[in-house]
Amino acid sequence: MIEQQLEHVRAELPSNVTLIAVSKTKPISALQEAYNAGQRHFGENKVQEMVEKAQQLPADIKWHLIGHLQTNKVKYMADFVHLIHGVDSLKLLLEIDKQAAKVERIQDVLLQFHIAQEETKFGLELNEALEFLASDTYLSLKNVRICGVMGMASFTTNEVQIREEFKNLVHIFNHLKQACFYEEDHFKEISMGMSGDYLLAVEQGSTMVRVGSKIFGSR
Ligand SMILES: *Cc1c(COP(=O)(O)O)cnc(C)c1O
After folding, report:
1. By the 8 A CB rule, do 209 and 202 touch?
2. What are the residue ranges in the chain where pLDDT is below 50?
3. CA-CA distance, 137 to 94, in Å (whole number)?
4. Where are the beta strands (DSSP E) in 78-125?
5. CA of 135 to the centre of ligand 1 (A)
6. Where are the alpha helices (DSSP H) in the chain?
7. Using an 8 Å Cβ cutoff, are 189 and 110 in contact?
8. Which of 40, 50, 63, 172 lies 20 to 30 Å from 81, alpha-carbon distance?
9. Whose CA is nearest to atom 15 of ligand 1?
10. Residue 121: what pLDDT?
11. Which pTM value belongs to this model?
12. What's the 10 CA to ligand 1 centre distance in angstroms?
């Protein structure tokens, strides 16, 4: 079942788009099945759950922390997490830098932007990001590398609206690329698209889709 669903989703994605299998709340056996079917990128939204799963699964898995992240949790995953998608403050970035320095890593991260209409979704506004990216504090960080942006569209069936929200994230990406990351080749990721909207996201230029229930079944 999981294998078929993975194949189905993969077949719809262009080769430049990374599929992140979002395995939150799912048992080890489900992740192992996906791994056996060739899946290597997994996404979790809770640090503790990700740490426990990582200990029990093969070491070549690339773990993505996709949810809202509290500063005090960063230390538990600093030595192995592949990409942190939800960076929405300079304070959090400072802590990630500090913990990455301790384990002598350069930690890849994405900046999360608020693109949905709903007020509950976390994320930065473009002006906020431009401001902290120009600060001496940010410019002095040595152990973090910003690789792009992440966002979540509104929970709606209105495709016109979802498309506009994804367009807005691409616009934010392009603006930041021009303004702050012009010469940095690693600033190239746009993480957008979930089970319900990943095809729309890919159409708008997503480079990473985070797909959970479509692969593993409902939670
Ligand atoms: C749970 C989650 C997903 C995956 O959601 P599905 O609808 O199950 O595909 C993607 N991104 C984030 C940030 C999530 O928390």
Report:
1. yes
2. none
3. 8
4. 83-87, 107-113
5. 32
6. 2-12, 28-36, 47-56, 90-102, 126-133, 136-139, 159-180, 198-204, 213-216
7. yes
8. 172
9. 67
10. 62
11. 0.97
12. 17
For residue 167, give both structure tokens. 């367009």
Token pair 């189905």 is found at 8
Helix axes 28-36, 47-56, angle to 10 degrees: 60
Amino acid at 24: K
**In terms of Cα–Cα distance, which of 128, 144, 151 is closest to 205?**
151
Residue bearing tokens 């262009």 = 14
pLDDT digits (tens, 9 = 90+) for 47-67: 999 999 999 999 999 999 998
31: tokens are 């992740």
Per-residue b or e along 180-208, where b marks 16 or more CB atoms closer than 10 Å to that residue's CB: ebeeeeebebbbbbbbebbebbbebebbb
The residues, any chain, with a CB within 8 Å of residue 3's CB and separated by 6 or more, are 33, 34, 36, 37
